[in-house]
Amino acid sequence: xxxxxxxxxxxxxxxxxxxxxxxxxxxxxxxxxxxxxxxxxxxxxxxxxxxxxxxxxxxxxxxxxxxxxxxxxxxxxxxxxxxxxxxxxxxxxxxxxxxxxxxxxxxxxxxxxxxxxxxxxxxxxxxxxxxxxxxxxxxxxxxxxxxxxxxxxxxxxxxxxxxxxxxxxxxxxxxxxxxxxxxxxxxxxxxxxxxxxxxxxxxxxxxxxxxxxxxxxxxxxxxxxxxxxxxxxxxxxxxxxxxxxxxxxxxxxxxxxxxxxxxxxxxxxxxxxxxxxxxxxxxxxxxxxxxxxxxxxxxxxxxxxxxxxxxxxxxxxxxxxxxxxxxxxxxxxxxxxxxxxxxxxxxxxxxxxxxxxxxxxxxxxxxxxxxxxxxxxxxxxxxxxxxxxxxxxxxxxxxxxxxxxxxxxxxxxxxxxxxxxxxxxxxxxxxxxxxxxxxxxxxxxxxxxxxxxxxxxxxxxxxxxxxxxxxxxxxxxxxxxxxxxxxxxxxxxxxxxxxxxxxxxxxxxxxxxxxxxxxxxxxxxxxxxxxxxxxxxxxxxxxxxxxxxxxxxxxxxxxxxxxxxxxxxxxxxxxxxxxxxxxxxxxxxxxxxxxxxxxxxxxxxxxxxxxxxxxxxxxxxxxxxxxxxxxxxxxxxxxxxxxxxxxxxxxxxxxxxxxxxxxxxxxxxxxxxx
Length: 674
What we know:
four-stranded mixed sheet, 674 residues, alpha+beta, rod-shaped, 36% helix, single chain, 12 helices
């Protein structure tokens, strides 16, 4: 029970203390005593004035300086203050104004002198960083946005007069720049688009900017990477990327400020000392011209004010291998013609002068402004141009060339494809450009009409068949004639080649039919020859089959021939031997004959004498029969037949006997009787 009573006692004590404190504040207030804490300031509003003249504020004023009713300029610092009766004064406690690091306090005043016409921010007055409202008003402080800032720290600010807005400090990160535009200052003079530079601690000192005659509008100067306390009432800051120009690129500069270009000029002259357009004021002071600049920016990083100049990135000018770059300069001094008396088709000038430079650029890359200098790449290697519809080379110079249509002497129209190979010497390239302006103009103004007209004229002097047959001859004549014609234009003609020739369809049909007939004849002849070859093959095959026999026969023939020759030799030998023998025998025979003849004549004479004597002794017929019988007997003929057929009165004679014997022999042999 005692514990409960103690608990309630504690509660009663706490509530009593609270009530006592409240009552204490109210009691103090009722007694005109104000206690301002250590972290606050008391701003006072006077409700009315009992005695005195200054009972009302002057017209247009908000803050009272002389005890008038209304908002009071003076504040109550921390501590105990008396005499501020609650029925006459209202005291509000306001926390100190704390500006943390990385912030700035931007101040606006609700009272003070009006801003002069055209001004946006109020001038700076000494007022202890806006902690002394009375000093601000009495020193001529102006109402509205203030040019001064409150830096980081803690301040006793009269919020009845000043309103404070915390704003981030301006931070420009690496790789960027701060582009400034002033909202107040002297108006820009006629024709000016960017304000001149004024030293003002990188725009952190607004009063110095105004005092130095700073101009409103875009500022020439930039702020580099870092942190800045810049008044946003006076300046606007835009972050922009630093300009990085990569390798193989150049920056083409166009400025917005400077002198007007001279008559006839297209780009500003080179001005020294402005650090590649990073110091605009130096450029302007050096009498640089606004607009396109001849000078270019090379690869690297630049802090260039985009309000002052714009940068266009373009590729470096490249002169490829087997080319030269002929430069046409649109800027520079007027140069003297150095082309010589023999060249009357344009002026050539030295490098750096305005005009066509006599010395071309060799292969490589060059940081050239394409708006002030034009570089035409002229091939120094052989260039092939095709007069053939739908066919073009990589250089595209022959993109507009087409197949040449010609008419022959016999009235036929036909199409002709031609390729022309040209070469331009290095030192003649500027002459070609000075004369024609470009390679494409050379093609359209010289090569196209020259070559087209040559082949049209050549075709008219020949019939189409002759033209086709003598293509090689025509090609050689074209090369010589065109080479001579192009030499006048400082162009070398390497070769002229005739490509596809397309005769009329009707003629082509005739030629095709003729060719087909010739081919058929050739085919037939080929087939005939094939048959001959086949026969020869068969013969050869048969010969191969019988070759052994042929060889054997040939050997037999050879042997027979050898034997024949041997026999001939033998016969010749025998013949000679026989001849000799015959001659010997003949001699013998003649001798023997002569002897025998003599003998025979002697014997015959003797026999004749005997026969005469025999005939004399018998009849001559009987003698003859006796001789026949002796002859037959010597030959073995039977004189007495096996069967004697008798018939006749006279009997049989010897003749009859012989005849009968012959008949018998024939019968035995089967010979038919007659």
